[in-house]
Fold this sequence. Notes:
Blueprint: E1 7-12, E2 21-24, E3 36-41, E4 44-55, E5 70-71, H1 80-92, H2 97-103, H3 107-110, E6 122-125, H4 127-131, H5 140-152, H6 157-162, H7 167-175, E7 179-182, H8 204-211, E8 219-225, H9 231-244, E9 248-252, H10 260-269, E10 274-277, H11 283-295, E11 300-303, E12 315-321, H12 338-349, E13 352-357, H13 362-369, E14 374-378, E15 389-394, E16 400-401, E17 404-405, H14 406-417, E18 421-426, E19 434-437, E20 454-456, E21 461-463, E22 470-471, E23 485-488, H15 492-502, E24 508-511, H16 519-531, E25 535-539, E26 552-559, H17 562-565, H18 571-583, E27 594-599, H19 607-611, H20 615-629, E28 636-644, H21 647-662, E29 668-680, E30 683-692, H22 695-708, E31 712-713, E32 716-722
Parallel strand pairs: 8-13, 8-14, 9-11, 9-12, 10-11, 12-13, 15-27, 18-25, 18-26, 24-25, 26-27
Antiparallel strand pairs: 1-2, 1-4, 3-4, 3-5, 6-7, 16-17, 19-23, 20-21, 21-22, 28-30, 28-32, 29-30, 31-32
Helix pairs in contact: 1-2, 1-12, 5-7, 8-9, 18-20
The structure holds adenosine-5'-diphosphate (ADP) and zinc ion (2 copies).
Amino acid sequence: MTTTAVQLADIVVPGPFSGPLSYRIPVDLSVVVGARCQVPLRNKIVVGIVVEVRSASNDDKLDKLKPIDTVLDATPLLDASLLDVAQWMSRYYLYDAASAYLLALPTLLRNGESAELIREARVELTIAGEHLEASQLKGKRQSEALLWLQTHGAATPSELRRHGIDRPHWRGLIDKRLAHEVALSVEPRAPTGQLRQSPLTLNDEQQSALLKLHDDAFNVLLLEGVTGSGKTEVYLQAMARTLAAGKRVLVLVPEIGLTPQTLERFQQRFADELVALHSGLTDKERHNAWLQAQHGEAAIVVGTRSAVLTPLPDLGLIVIDEEHDASFKQQDTLRYHARDVAIFRARQADIPVILGSATPSLESLHNARNGRYQHAELKQRAAGRARPQLETIDMRRQQHEHGISERLRYRIADHLAQGQQVLLFLNRRGYAPSWFCSACGWMADCPFCDARLTYHRGRHQTICHHCGYQSRPETTCPDCGSHELMPLGAGTERAEEALEQWFPQIPIIRFDRDAITTADALNRQLERTREAGPAILVGTQMLAKGHHFENVTLVGILDLDAGLFSADFRSRERTGQLLVQVAGRAGRGDAAGEVLLQSWHPDHPFFEPLLQQDYPRFSDQLLRERQPAGLPPFGFLACLRADSAYPQQAENRLAEMADFLLQHPGIRVFGPLPAILSRRAGKHRFVLVVQSDKRSQLHAALEPLVRHYPRQQRALSWHLDIDPLETL
Ligand code: ADP
Ligand code: ZN
Ligand code: ZN
């Protein structure tokens, strides 16, 4: 038997396979590594990615191998180093190979769409348009469109639409010969590092931070700097160095941080092309942005979590802003952490990484201490601004109404009277966290979860925030028949309502997932905030991150107490980070800031270093607590979670898994225990926490487990979470 001429391709295909499958390459097809092919799988034709091309060996069962159906790409879409990253992800997170590889591709490419760039023409002003005073145009919307183009330069119709400029408005400009459409033909071009705007003169701390980053090899710089200390300026100057050397830059930001404000800061600085990749794009926009990056037309990619796998020729630097942010961790299917994947990618590519945060994760701080990362601290606010004053309000000694204490209310009035803006943070959306019978104490529960229903006044509904179940609020108590039913506790909607009554002249601008469902809506609220005079912003987490509120001088934190008593090992780290981040929104403009924290436990030692605004001491304290317990970053964790309609089944499966794991050296297990929210959407969840002092031992035990147990078996399903953010 001779098999000399038979060529095979190893192809990663969708499905629960831990590696690629082999296919024959028909003689008339040419196949390259990193390209997509359509191949038969069971009775279907699916899209896969070629990871190896080779001659058949004696081990290949040639008669069983099917031929490739179609080759979709003549050239590779993913280069060898990205293929390595994807392979690493599937091994590290112990998940299907295909999920990792396909994660690198935008949806349309995953579905087999052509990798041709569909180019949109740009609308560009003519010389007449450049020079016309916008107010001379009659139509209001047309004059706004003109002004926008005069300040921002040419843009595609979809960019214009995103800024609220619709087709008829720019069409009108074209009819008046104030603008014309310019077809795009963009060629790959090397980054230049040319600046549109001169850089700021770095202060000493910024300068020494920049000196700690080495351009030509893998190294990680942890840039710890209080909010407003000028971290972004350090990123910009590091990026300028990279671009000037002809290399490209990938910037990752948290979900909520990718606003036009953020993008503008990069665009205003660099002449080089920038593309943004985030969840607000349509499939087609994402497809195009991704291909522009892949072709080398973009010098800078700014994106959220999944952008970590964007192909960029000559990648020279990765920047991760707010590296501690939980949105970098994917919480379903392939549960990867974009920061950790980025660091692996940088190591493969032998390039530097900057991790920036005012509140670095304990993992990164630990790496900085043991010398694996460089560590630079920016302790002063840039531009000489004072740091805000932080104080607690003892709720035990205060009158309060709708969750807002008298003292806070006076301070709000004071700041408003001085023409300032106020930000109130409350991590609970809806009107009230429960619907309650004042006669007997009954509270409305979700019929499908172990959770209370939240009352939403705007819709007059009780809603489960865990499974989405909605109902009309009961008017008669099912337990005692009383009609004295009412909302209990306060959420953002209630705070908003109270504030409207107390400050009828003042705009109240709400930021939460009910008020803001799209990126556009977020931008509108940010815009409203910028344009308003005295105003109150009320919101959840959404307010904590990255936004620059020039006129906010008072921040009120209504309630963070829950974070003190949660059983989750990261809860205090997260609560502390949240406090620092929210507090950091105060006084970013010219006036000094004030931060007031309402608490029922104002003397809790947890708050002490935070009130001193000493995050380094706070994180030291947490690290010291974690070390003896072998918790991350000193030990390594994985979480197994099982869901079933029958609680016993979920618990038994995890108990079996515990026995399986304990046969391996160096493994400790905790549980199985019912999850904190043990019933959600009608299923019961149990959790098993697996711990080891050595990462290699953890993987050695989990790898055979993943192969041994099917993920889904009748009523039961389970998943594995490596390096979990939560263990509950
Ligand atoms: P961070 O990213 O740490 O929150 P920014 O980079 O946004 O901080 O800086 C906060 C403000 O200080 C910005 O308005 C920025 O322009 C200004 N700034 C930063 N660095 C300097 C500097 N070296 N000199 C003067 N102003 C600076
Ligand atoms: Zn009752
Ligand atoms: Zn529910």
